[in-house]
Amino acid sequence: MMRIIMEMMNNFHKDKILKVQQQKNFNLQKYLEDNKKLINSRLEKFLKIRYPSTIWESMRYTALLDGKRIRPVLCLESARACGGDIEIVLPTACAIEMIHAQSLIHDDLPCMDNDDLRRGKPTNHMVFGESIAVLAGDGLLSYAPQVVIQHTPNNVDRSILLQVVEELVTVAGPLGLVGGQSVDIESENKEIDLATFNYIHTHKTGKLFAFALRSGALLSNAPVEHLNILTEYAQLIGYAFQIADDILDVIGTKESLGKTPGKDKLAKKNTHPSLYGMKESINEVERLCSQAQQALVKEKLESPALIAIAGSIVQKVKK
Ligand code: GRG
């Protein structure tokens, strides 16, 4: 039954794919590299080693490994698009990467996905052992809001800061990543309905993407229309990003992914390609990213970087 509904939806979506915009005079690679350098230098400072050193080394290890830093980049870019000050959002951008790193450390543990490779290097528990890896995740999770509270400049309205911190801890917890992960684990080896499938995808990925863009806008005193459009953009590309991750798990290599491919099939996970088929999953990524771009254009929110980032998700799966 679920398959029939999905096929009907796919046919409906087929007609709706708008062209994904490509940014001609925008160097996305350089933009991403420059932003990554800035984020890494702040992460280095926030995660400087202190006593007890093993836990800080373990937290630093995964947080500073060579990942894309796409979530903090989105936070910075959201602020730029709203005319905000990058110095104000940098602590929050780093906190987002810490929460992401925590989810990767815990996701890789033997009791979860049991992976020995992440970001092209041995996973945290392979280097530091399981007990320290659990604590490193816990450490990053609780240190992230502390960084936002202690390092966001004092001229930021305290009620806005409170909203940012509240949204951050909500996204990291049972109403966000933890909720998505627990439903995902319970759904392994089972047929699930569309609502459950969407819940997993939006909570494991979409919510942190949405927070990245929302926090950048909130800390820049953006008007509510901008906040809403950036949230919509984030939800769309967040979903596309998760589908792309599912696709790359099938077609990617250990070298290109920096992690073990084929894990979803092994764990009999309900992924977009396993439910919809590969071709339809690629179409869906294109449709979602195009819709995200249209949302920005409609609201006249100018950001060549956000347009290019949406386009790059499509390119990743169409190569
Ligand atoms: C709270 C334990 C716990 C887990 C939450 C987010 C999550 C659920 C688990 C992490 C593993 C996973 C497959 C998440 C889906 C989101 C995703 C596509 C992660 C990979 O993100 P990238 O591609 O990785 O941005 P890099 O290494 O570039 O940062």
Secondary structure elements and pairings:
Layout: H1 2-14, H2 28-46, H3 53-64, H4 70-81, H5 86-108, E1 117-118, E2 121-122, H6 124-128, H7 130-151, H8 158-172, H9 177-187, H10 194-218, H11 224-251, H12 254-257, H13 263-266, H14 272-276, H15 278-298, H16 304-318
Antiparallel strand pairs: 1-2
Geranylgeranyl diphosphate binds at residues 67-68, 70, 100, 103-104, 106-107, 119, 177-178, 180-181, 204-205, 241-242, 245.
Please explain how this structure is put together.
- This protein has 319 residues and is an all-alpha fold.
- It contains 16 helices and two strands.
- A hairpin with a 2-residue loop joins β1 and β2.
- α5 runs antiparallel to α7 and α8 packs antiparallel against α10.
- The protein starts with a helix and ends with a helix.
- The relative contact order is 0.14.
- Bound molecules: geranylgeranyl diphosphate.
- The site of geranylgeranyl diphosphate has 18 residues, from α5, α9, α10 and α11.
